[in-house]
Specification:
Length: 153
């Protein structure tokens, strides 16, 4: 995460997150690094569907049609939380950490998104590992993806 923080500082950007299955782990991992307060504004943990809908304002139609384990849900989480947190970039995490199926979707199916003012990219993962290892892997991977997202601008 140190490389991510340095890049955000260099570009004078702020970041936030909207986290479901990671339950704040992305923001917490960033906060472990000295200097994080220069870039990390906050995180919204939306572990329950009601929080996604009532706090972040993910449209109920999205949840009903696609479920919370979906690309459209991850996209809305990132876009709407970016506005709520007033950050340059917002990363979202929604998926099934397991061990059971959820919404008829297998354990290890995860959707993440990165949103800025102009675009939103969604990432799909199919991981087979213990739930906490999966959560840590996603946090590490999305930290790298944010740098790639910025490089593509």
């Amino acid at each position: 995460m140190k490389a991510l923080i340095e890049r955000l500082k260099k570009d004078r950007l702020t970041i936030g997150s909207c986290e479901s299955l990671t339950a704040g782990l992305f923001a917490s991992t960033i906060a472990e690094v000295s200097g994080a307060s220069a870039v990390l504004k906050g995180s919204i943990v939306t572990y329950w569907t009601e929080c996604k809908v009532n706090v972040v304002h993910v449209r109920e139609e999205i949840v009903e049609k696609y479920g919370v384990v979906s690309a459209p849900c991850a996209k809305e989480m990132a876009e709407k939380a970016r506005l709520l947190l007033d950050v340059d970039l917002c990363v979202s995490f929604s998926g099934n950490a397991g061990p059971d199926t959820m919404e008829g979707k297998p354990a290890g199916l995860v959707y993440c998104a990165i949103a800025d003012r102009h675009r939103c990219e969604v990432y799909e993962f199919h991981l087979t590992m213990e739930r906490n290892a999966l959560r840590k892997k996603l946090v590490e991977e999305m930290g790298k993806q944010v740098i790639r997202f910025l490089d593509a601008c």
